[in-house]
Amino acid sequence: MTLYGIKNCDTVRKARKWLDKNQPNISFHDFREDGLDKEQLTHWVALIGWEKLFNKRSTSFRNLSDADKADIDQDKAIELMLNHPTLIKRPVLVVDDKIQVGFKEADYQAWFNS
Fold first, then answer.
1. Are 12 and 6 in contact (CB under 8 A)?
2. pLDDT band, very low/low/confident/very high, at 5 (cuts 50, 70, 90)
3. 2-112, what's its fold?
4. What percent of the chain has pLDDT over 90?
5. What ranges in 5-114 are assigned the alpha helix state H?
6. Which of 9, 48, 64, 95 is catalytic?
7. From the CB of residue 45, how many other CB atoms can be counted at a distance below 10 Å?
8. Tell me, what's the pLDDT at 8?
9. Could you give the dihedral angle defined by the CA atoms of residues 68, 74, 77 and 83, in that order, rounded to the nearest 10 degrees?
10. Active site residue 14
11. Less Cβ crowding at N or C end of the chain, within 10 Å?
């Protein structure tokens, strides 16, 4: 089990705190420090779709050029997320071939109790 995100993100901190208390054997992978490869990101997109993973409400998205914001499809979204990891909704929790994006305590409780 791995939690992906950026360590100074408030939502990631909340998820890490909950996981430390309830599921202590989860490793953490920081997008900025540890990087992210295209194969991994493509796999996530195949599991949940780029639209769920790509954060159009982020400051990073607002700071993109108009050309980058236009005509976004799966391939373009993957390239943008690789170049700007802060465009990825956080945190991303991966357990085998299951993926959970974002953090809501009730969702995590339901996921780990299923």
1. yes
2. very high
3. Glutaredoxin (3.40.30)
4. 89
5. 10-22, 31-34, 38-48, 50-53, 59-62, 66-69, 74-83, 105-112
6. 9
7. 20
8. 93
9. -110
10. no
11. C
Quote the crossing angle between the two packed helices 10-22 and 105-112, to the nearest 10°.
40
- Please state, in angstroms and rounded to a whole number, the distance separating the CA atoms of residues 92 and 72: 21
* pLDDT the model gives residue 61: 96
Beta bridge partner(s), residue 100: 93
Q: What is the pTM of this model?
A: 0.91
CB 90 within 8 A of CB 35: no
> In the chain, what are the domain boundaries?
2-112
Give the integer Cα–Cα distance in Å for 17 and 60: 25
The tens digit of pLDDT for each residue in 63-95 reads 999 999 999 999 999 999 999 999 999 999 998
- Which of 38, 90, 33, 29 is closest to 59 using CA atoms? 90
